[in-house]
Amino acid sequence: MGWHTRWRLRLEIFHYYCCELKDRSCATQNFTIRPRGGVFSRKVRLASDVAGIPFLTFFIVSAPYVVVSTVLTILMGAKLFRVKGLKTEEEKAEAANLVAGFDENDGIESESFFWFGTIMTGLFIIVIAATSALPYISDLGMGYVALSFAAVMLMRYKSEVDKFYQSVDWDLLGFFACLFVVINVMEHAMVLEMIGTWIKPIINMTPKAGSAALMVAAGMASSVTDNIPLAAMLAKILGGLPDAPSMKLWWAVVFGANLGGNITPIGSASTLVAVTIIHKNKLHMTFGGFVKVATPYAAIQLLLAAVYVGLFVG
After folding, report:
1. Helix, strand or coil for residue 169?
2. Is residue 83 left, alpha or beta, with left meaning phi > 0 and alpha meaning psi from -120 to 50?
3. For residue 36, what pLDDT is reported?
4. I need a surface site. Which of 153, 161, 213, 243 has the fewest CB within 10 A?
């Protein structure tokens, strides 16, 4: 493998990590069908819904971590991949010409189409953020809001609605439906209660130590299994405890289940998407190679999250 191929491979992973971190700050990922096919933070809502964490609270609490972690990840990437700034005037001119060659209107078939979509996206974010404070809508929940906006968009673009139906990942929707059936069966079969007894020593620790231990445990488990059912299972266990668990434990599940999935290619749907893109570009990537590149980032992010939750959350 040539040096340029190796660096391109590392930058692909670095780009994935930056995109993945961005998703940590938004609690509505489970209600969006994303063109790139990811399910990046659906596990976030699985835990925060059971914990009763409103959207604005979630955003306010997670945003500082996301900002610091993103900056740290970029600095790490620049250091590890030896990314240097533009120094000479020739390099700056070449970069300026490259940027100037981009057409911001490329892909916009209709201006009215574009502005309607922009306005609806803005309204969707506002309504989702204010769902808990809006009368009637707060009783219906975020799912109703998402379905309502989806219906409006489908009616507005009914002449091309077949494209939207084709882009929906129906297998993914079926997976989620079956997933929650399995989890509820596990709950009634007392399987979750049995698993809860295994993590009871962690829960009975002091809030700071317990949240750090649970986050590491969730992160390690998430690295070898899909983090969506893991987050759903842990949320069910914490929600079923006789005594209300500390909010630090809820946030430990949120961060641990998310960040641990970054360690291996099979840890989450987002890592699978990243590996798929790498292979589509015919870049050689082994399981061990992914873990080697990804582990420093995941370790730093988990350590930072453990400190953040222990000192500033709850």
Report:
1. coil
2. beta
3. 31
4. 243
DSSP annotation of 264 reads: S
Q: What is the DSSP string of 53-99?
A: --HHHHHHHHHHHHHHHHHHHHHHHHHHTT-----SHHHHHHHHHHH
Write the pLDDT tens digit of every residue in 239-277.
777 777 788 888 888 898 888 888 888 777 777 777 777
In whole angstroms, what is the distance from residue 205 CA to residue 213 CA?
9
Q: Binning pLDDT at 50, 70 and 90, where does residue 205 land? A: confident
pTM of the model: 0.67
Tokens read off for 258: 């998310």
Torsion of CA 270, 302, 179, 187, to 10 degrees: 180
- Residue 177 has which token pair? 């439906």
Q: How many residues does the chain have?
A: 314
- Angle formed at CA 288 by CA 284 and CA 289, multiple of 5 degrees: 45
Residue 27 identity: A
Rounded to 5°, angle at Cα 20 from 14 and 26: 150
Tokens at residue 194, please?
A: 């049995």
> How many whole angstroms separate alpha carbon 140 and alpha carbon 137?
5
